[in-house]
Amino acid sequence: MAIQPIRLFGDPVLRTPAEPVVDFDKELRKLVKDLTDTMMDAPGAGLAAPQIGVGLRVFTYYVDEQLGHLINPDLDLGGEVDEEGEEGCLSFPGLTFPTPRAIRAVAKGFNMHGEPVTLEGTDLMARCFQHETDHLDGVLFIDRLDSKQRKLAMKAIREAEWSGLSAPVVKISPHATQGRAL
Ligand SMILES: [Zn+2]
């Protein structure tokens, strides 16, 4: 097990676009393992490399008992949008907001051995692919909220006990986000 501290909102690494993976080597396989272990420990439904301080385009997911990872993802979104689905993020412990996301997503990329992979997701899986790929672009779920929800989110963030902590010190309750934290 190689559980890493999860970076919290306010840490600049979460706003920094990640670089594409070029070397599919042992270090990359260790990164995928660290992401997987950290995600499962949290627990979360997804985790992107910048959330453990690594600026590479890699994420892991665990949705509907399907565990996996994707490297250098490229998304193709369906037109239908779920406006109301609650979404959280391990970098915003305990907070969820209704976040508009496409209901269907096809994610193309590579596995850790450099083999091409195509993943198709609906509902929470599609939401996860969008949330994690956003992380790799330095985009956070609060950026996707409508203006009313965004105001509520900023207030909740200011009032959160972890607000302003850039050091990763919070071990969140597994119940706080009903397993929907990404
Ligand atoms: Zn997240």
What do you see in this structure?
The chain is of the alpha+beta class and 182 residues long. The chain has a single domain, classed as Peptide Deformylase (Alpha-Beta Complex), CATH 3.90.45. The protein is 23% helix and 25% strand. It is built from three helices and nine strands; from the N terminus they run H-E-E-E-E-E-E-E-E-E-H-H. The chain has helices spanning 26-41, 124-136, 147-159, and strands spanning 46-48, 58-63, 66-77, 81-82, 86-88, 96-98, 101-102, 104-110, 116-122. A hairpin with a 5-residue loop joins strand 8 and strand 9. The protein is globular, with a radius of gyration of 15 Å. The model has no long low-confidence stretch (mean pLDDT 93). It binds zinc ion. Zinc ion binds next to helix 2. It catalyses: N-terminal N-formyl-L-methionyl-[peptide] + H2O = N-terminal L-methionyl-[peptide] + formate.
Task: Please write out the topology.
Blueprint: H1 26-41, E1 46-48, E2 58-63, E3 66-77, E4 81-82, E5 86-88, E6 96-98, E7 101-102, E8 104-110, E9 116-122, H2 124-136, H3 147-159
Antiparallel strand pairs: 1-2, 2-3, 3-8, 4-7, 5-6, 8-9
Zinc ion (ZN) is lined by residues 89-91, 131, 135, 182.
Report the bound ligands by name, code or SMILES.
Answer: zinc ion
| Largest beta-sheet details | 5 strands, antiparallel
The 3D shape can be described as globular
What is the count of β-strands?
Answer: 9
Mean pLDDT rating = 93
Question: How many angstroms does the end-to-end distance come to?
Answer: 20 Å
Task: Count helical runs.
Answer: 3
CATH class: Alpha Beta
CATH architectural category: Alpha-Beta Complex
Helix content: 10-25%
Which stretches of 5+ consecutive residues score pLDDT under 50?
none
* SSE succession: HEEEEEEEEEHH
Radius of gyration: 15 Å
CATH topology, by name, is: Peptide Deformylase
InterPro entries: Peptide_deformylase, Peptide_deformylase_sf
Protein name: Peptide deformylase
Cofactor: Fe(2+)
Organism: Microbispora rosea
